[in-house]
Structure formats: structure tokens, C-alpha cells
Hydrogenase transcriptional regulatory protein hupR1
Amino acid sequence: MNQKTILCVDDEINVLRSLKRLLRNEDYQLITANGGEEGLAVLAEEEVSVVLSDQRMPGMTGTEFLSIVKEKYPECVRVVLSGYADAATILDSINKGAIYRFLTKPWNDEEIRVTIRQCLSQYELLQENRNLTEEIKLQNVELNRLNQQLEDLVGKSTQSLHFSQEVLAKIPIPVVGISAESIVVLANEAVDKMYPTLREVHLGSDIKDIFSSEIIETVTNCLSGSKQSETVPLTIENKQIRIHCKKLMDGDHLRGCVLSMEESYG
């Protein structure tokens, strides 16, 4: 963990010297500034975790100074150290400077040490919250990117599927998709255009309700047999055709078959 920095701001040199002596053995860097302007100059150059400021200083009060610190360095924990502990000053400091603690002069040495340790813990908590917020923002950006990629992929897949379905529908060869349960799940336009007697081939129909016994036997043999395909010559509407039936497998799992009909010319 990087060493933290404490900034003490007071217009009285003796007060700053006393704080240096008090805190010289603590595990953080201590920087002093002789007034609000000098304190702001330090903050512009250093990453400060805690600011301990006097209230009544010439040129800029502690409340005014800490209000600027709150605006420019909101994670810096702010403490007022003042010999004038009137209620109005305390309230004004809290309202304008978002003060974490208000300590009075003369101070208790141990109270100063404990307060600064508490302030450092508060600073670390604010840092963790900021880091967590940034991490969540980055995760949200990545999630949005992945969602967009998924939407693009789904869109392209859908377009590809629609195109494939359109191509299949327009193929001038009758094609029927049949499930493993002998139910028609696909039939292209060529089925009823080329063989009007098969116009009852509708999705969801059982093959035994629409096909001849020869076609049913061919499909049944294909689905239940050991061969991957069956080809049988038949006559439909006085046309010599060949029925091709090919299994569709998903690994070892039977999904169904594709039935196509091709005219035979000798």
C-alpha cells in the first residue's frame, strides 16, 4: 500500500511545528501549509488523503478553504481544527465543507492521532468505492459490447436462416422434413406443385395420414433401419420417381429424416 499524505494547514507556525512533533512517528507523510492558498498549491501537486485545517485564518477561512477542497478533491477527507468552537462555525463548516470531523484547540494528542487514523480508513473506503464504481462501469461497457455482438450475431443468423428457408422453399425438387416420431416438420412448395395428390402434406401431419403405404414403408425403414439412407423407385401420378430418404443424426441421437422426390427418366 502506498504511503498516505496528511496536509496540515494553519497560519500559526507554532501550531504546525507542534503537529509535526506530535505526528512525526506516524506511518504517513506529513506536509504543512501556512494558509489556504498555500494549502491549495500543495493539493495541486500532491495526492493528499486527509486535510487538517485551522478555521480562522487571514485571507481565507478554513470553511472557505475546505469548500474548495471538497469541490476539487472530493475524496480527500476534511477535518477542522479550531480554537473557536461556537455552534455557528461548526454548522457552517459542516454545511459548506462536508467536514468529517471537528476538533478543538487546545487538542488532545491521542484524539488527533485516532482521528487521523479514522480519516485514513474513510479515505481508503472512498477509494475502494471509486475503484468498484469504475470496475462496474467497465463491466457494463463490456457487457453492452457483448450484447451488441450477440444482437448482431442473432440478426445475421436470423437473416441466414430466413435466406436458407427461402432457398429451400424455392428448390424445384419436392423436399419433406420428417421428425423421428414420423411427423412432418417441413415441406417446400415443390411438393404440391409437382404432385397435386400430396397437397395434404401440412406441418404437424403424421405421415400415415398423408403418404402412400410405399412412402410410409420407405420412411419407416429409413428411421428404424441401420442404413443412413434409403432410395426406392415408385410411381406417383403416373410418373416414375425415386424416393430418397436420408437420416438426420445429432451424434448418436436420431433427429428424423429428409425425404426428397426425383423424377426418373429411364
Remarks:
- The helical segments are 13-23, 36-45, 62-72, 87-97, 109-170, 190-194, 213-224.
